[in-house]
Write a structure and sequence with these properties.
Mediator_Med18; eight-stranded antiparallel β-barrel; 10 strands; globular; Hypothetical Protein Pfu-838710-001; activator; 3 helices
């Protein structure tokens, strides 16, 4: 058994014209829903060890629906191979609690910012899963504030475990894989959910 905690996920996207049908189906099978508006920054190590293919990515996320919300830091290793998990993206991850300035903390640890996005849409809860459905907003280079997405911007969907999952006898990883595959089946014919390797 591995000592890692994992995220199990599936991903998809769709055209705005399908929003109502997809929203209706997800809502029907979700326990709760609330608006999503967040800023996410991805950091990668400034110096990478060429002999090691594994490097930790840091993702900093701030919830913009709550004033004064703190940054959350998440660390990710690269996904496990498709041979081990052909049906879903499974990758080691951890949530890092940071008091104060999480972005300076990431820089102090030797990380540089690779990308930044704003997401706006909805978050649904279904058991141990979180389903994010959002459009990416562009970032104004001068103010770093979000620019509302164009009406025909693709919607993206991430179906994933809401918190890190340990692979134990009581909670085998297969439980989480089955949970995301159940959503894949529920959305069949409307939305193609798949594993990705990035």
């Amino acid at each position: 058994m591995s000592s890692h905690s994992y995220e199990v996920a599936l991903f998809g996207d769709f055209f705005p014209r399908d929003l109502k049908a997809i929203m209706n189906r997800i809502t029907l099978h979700a326990e709760s829903a609330h608006p999503l508006h967040c800023r996410e920054l991805v950091y990668e190590p400034l110096v990478r060890d060429p002999s090691s293919p594994d490097f930790v990515l840091l993702r900093a996320r701030k919830d913009l629906t709550q004033s004064g919300a703190n940054w959350m830091l998440f660390s990710y290793l690269k996904p496990e191979s498709a041979r081990a998990h052909p049906e879903a993206t499974v990758r080691p991850w951890a949530v890092v609690g940071v008091m104060g300035d999480a972005l300076s903390f990431a820089s102090a640890m030797g990380y540089v910012r690779r990308s930044q996005i704003y997401k706006r849409g909805y978050v649904f809860r279904r058991g141990l899963l979180e389903i994010q459905m959002f459009q990416q907003e562009q970032v104004d280079p001068k103010t770093e504030q979000p620019i509302p997405a164009h009406a025909d911007t693709l919607w993206e969907v991430e179906v994933k475990t809401a918190s890190p999952v340990r692979n134990t006898q009581e909670t085998p990883l297969s439980q989480s894989v089955d949970a995301v595959l159940e959503v894949q089946l529920l959305m069949k014919g409307l939305l193609d959910l798949r594993r990705i390797d990035s």
